[in-house]
Protein 1
Amino acid sequence: MSKNTYAVAVRDVDLRLLLTVVRASAGDIYVNWPRDMEDPNWKPHGSWHASGQYHHKSYNHKLLPVQQRQKPDASFTDTGNL
């Protein structure tokens, strides 16, 4: 399975990675917020699945109720925040 990964970095004093956006070939989109590896179970992220399901997770628990949105595919119209 191929994927496209994009990085967003910020230079304040030093250059640091703020987040990554991953688009999987299946159509799922993930926004990942990298954190210190002191706690490898802490992997906060948001996901917008090809089915239209949208949610955020941290410590493998959904933080907000799962939403059903339009599918992020070629028929996508308007805008959507992740």
Note: The CA atoms of residues 28 and 49 lie 4 Å apart.
Protein 2
Amino acid sequence: MNKDLEEFLDRNFGVRPAAQTDSLIDPFENLKNLLTHRIKHFIRTDLDKLLQALYRIDINDKESDKAFELGDIDLVAEALSELIIKRQLKKIEYAKNFKGDL
């Protein structure tokens, strides 16, 4: 699992993956499930904080709007967690490539 991604999710969403004891569990799926659960919490309790995080992370408005249009909180949270993870992985990859060019 990508340590940079784990640190980002911990810092921004308080998501900390548990130590893996079952090798059959995909660590990426585990992280996505934890983030999905946390996003559901924000949708229910502090939507403004979630929207600010999406803006700060630079999630495309059209993509986040499409996620919210799903309606069901479980589907919305899962779609948003995938968008967040994909965006952050792109940023991490870009940073690695940029550092490699220096």
Note: DSSP finds five helices and no strands in the chain.
Protein 3
Amino acid sequence: MSSLDKSSIHSVEISTIAHATEDPGRVESALRELASGVNQQFTRRYIEGHHHNPIITFQAKLDSGKATEFATSFIRQLSGSERVRIIRDLALHCDAEGNLYVRVDKQKLFRGEFQLGDDDPIRIKIKFSRLTGNPTDTITRFLELE
């Protein structure tokens, strides 16, 4: 599959947190690098952590065209082995509603490395249209993009 039908992806949500020990500007720069090409604004929310430490959450929601553009670029940044790992463990990364959940290692992204990771991640939720068929098949075809 060389391209993805624009109607296949409904939306994308990107989110992460900046701990009190992190520079919020650096976190936002990493998010902008991840979402390069879609010129997206991230909403900041200031909350208090369990030990009364300040935490900043960053979130963005991309709809329609921006979502497809981001998702296609994102999946092409994943290594072949990471795609195979997601497909192999698809039940851990998707739900029956047609959502794909992927986590990118935020600390490695600071160093310019793009890699999946569960520790201190940037969370990405890609929502696929239910009108494009079986969600699992659609997600698998998406992960096989060249």
Note: The first strand starts at residue 9 and ends at 18.
Protein 4
Amino acid sequence: MMRSILVMVLFAFSASVYADGFNYNSVTLSYGQMQFDDLDVDGDSIGISGSFEVGEKFFLAAGYGKSDIGDNFISADIDSWSAGVGYHMPMSDRFDLVTSLSYEYVDISVDGFGSESDNGIGIGAGVRFAATEKFEIDGGVSYVDYSDGGDDTSFGLGFLYNFTDSFSAGASGNWGDDTSAYGIGGRFYFGN
């Protein structure tokens, strides 16, 4: 269960660092729901993440998320942090391949049982596709290996609607071995 919580919190907060023709300078605010497939436990999450382009094809990314999960018998607070670097390779003016490498940290506090933290490495590969001038589709796969909490692979899919050159909003889903996460968010672009 600990492994599933760690991995899904991570993916619930991971912003798709993939955006418009394509701008990799952004800040994203998000709200999400997590569901644990084998347990009758779910939770809410909020997060902030961002990326900053360095050079022509690299970007730095970081994020923070807070989640509350539980039911009538158990309650837990989860804080997660992520920081890393990514690389994007334009395949056309409407399609980018994106890879990333990140350091991940998570702290879980369970009422009546104390807290536990873990850290590890995450890698990801995905695509960004501008279906139209206003509509973007993102998808990818991520793998996280924690030092104590095990490892997991998750698949994600999302979309963004570009209201202006500076603001987009959308929804996303992530599916791992034991959990599912769904979220909505707003992304603010700068420096393009």
Note: The CA atoms of residues 10 and 77 lie 14 Å apart.
